[in-house]
Amino acid sequence: FLIGDTRRIIREAAKKSCFICCKMGASITCCESGCDRTFHLPCAPNGECVTQYFGAYRSFCWEHRPQQALQLLPSQDNTCTICLHTVEDRISYKTMVCPACQDARFHRQCIQRLALHAGISFRCPRCLNQEPFMMQMLIMGIRLSKRPPSWESDKEVRPSDQRHRRCDATTCLCPGGREHVEAYGPWQLWLCSSCAAEGTHQLCSSLGSSTYSWECNTC
């Protein structure tokens, strides 16, 4: 934009209120024809809005955002493939599914963090499909990184087939030690939702029952 165009956009945004937080200065308008909803970019997740970080960089409100036209396959494992915590039993803004295998399910926050860490190697964490998977994630508003995977320069990040199995909390409270893990309860092991290279017992990091993901200090 030219300087004049930038100033004009700022003046127009100052007159518009965000339909999510109701404060002024909303510079993003839904791209759907006839929709006049405006919002701030930081408010978008709270309003379940989608911004596509490619091409024309289009943004959509909660009503007109793109949605995955898929049916979840029946599964007894209703968990996020990345953080291993429960996901909804339906596709929604917060719960997404791989369009290739239609079996990998994940939280939007989890797949967004993976996309930024994986960079050019971003693919389905379960079936390893890349092209259709990546394209659909872009359409659904997942922002990708064009850099090499972060784990190529981080020796502490382990390969995906070697799942982390110990508590890395500063103070481990488990009587059985850092490597003692139980399926449920205070000694259930939570892996970092971004790198999966560090873990913590639920009690050791004071994770409540309403918490659905945990991120290590490194991430």
TrEMBL record:
Domain PHD-type: 1-65
Span of domain RING-type: 80-127
Gene3D superfamilies referenced in this protein's UniProt entry, alphabetically: Zinc/RING finger domain, C3HC4 (zinc finger) (3.30.40.10)
Keyword terms: Metal-binding, Zinc, Zinc-finger
UniProt entry tagged with the keyword Transmembrane: no
Gene Ontology cellular component annotations, sorted alphabetically: nucleus
InterPro entries attached to this UniProt entry: EPHD, PHD-type_Zinc_Finger, PHD_PHF7/G2E3-like, Znf_FYVE_PHD, Znf_RING, Znf_RING/FYVE/PHD
One MF term in the entry's GO annotations: zinc ion binding
Superkingdom, taxonomy of origin: Eukaryota
SUPFAM superfamilies associated with the record: FYVE/PHD zinc finger
Name of the molecule in the record: PHF7 protein
Species lineage: Eukaryota, Metazoa, Chordata, Craniata, Vertebrata
